[in-house]
Amino acid sequence: MLNWQPVNASDARVGEVDLICALGRIVLVLEVKSTFIRQSQRDAWLHGTTTLRKAGHQLRRKVPAVERALAEGSDLAASLNLTGDTGSVSVHGWIVDTSIECDHQRFSGFLKVSLEEVLIALRDDRHLLNDPEGILSVRYQEDELAIVDDAHAEASLYPTGFTVEGFMDAVEKESVWEERRTPKSGIRAASHRRCPLGHQPAQRSARA
Asked: What pLDDT is attached to residue 184?
């Protein structure tokens, strides 16, 4: 659901929620930031201390507002195709940014991830970061499709099938960028640069 707004008067200051996603009994509240590539460390620092910090504060208000709306039996649950006892629904919040700066740091307890990482995890396309056609490892053959399928199977984030729990785990553990060596290709996957400032991500806590 795009651009949801709370109807409860007590949540008037919450503002618009960019995106709410639901599958099974898990709900993701996403604060989406579309940003440009910064040209200096100062600009990147300001991005983290202003835009992303504000996004964390916003999620601190928006996630509870979504939880209240679901608990009160509002139209939100029906819009998300949630049936039965909404009290058993688990609501989480992420900051999703079009840049990779300050990835996997937490702001007000909420994980910041790049849109690129989310899309790769959703599509289970990690194999595309790892020489899928075997060109670099001299595995390239006439049967390109078979090689790509083989690489996909080797690198899949969901070897037993996609689940929302597996998707969240893959993103939160940075499995998309995990450096590894596949048995056949011998080519390492691309490592992921988390933050241009050289900051280490905050220690992970329980899911927001």
From this structure: 43
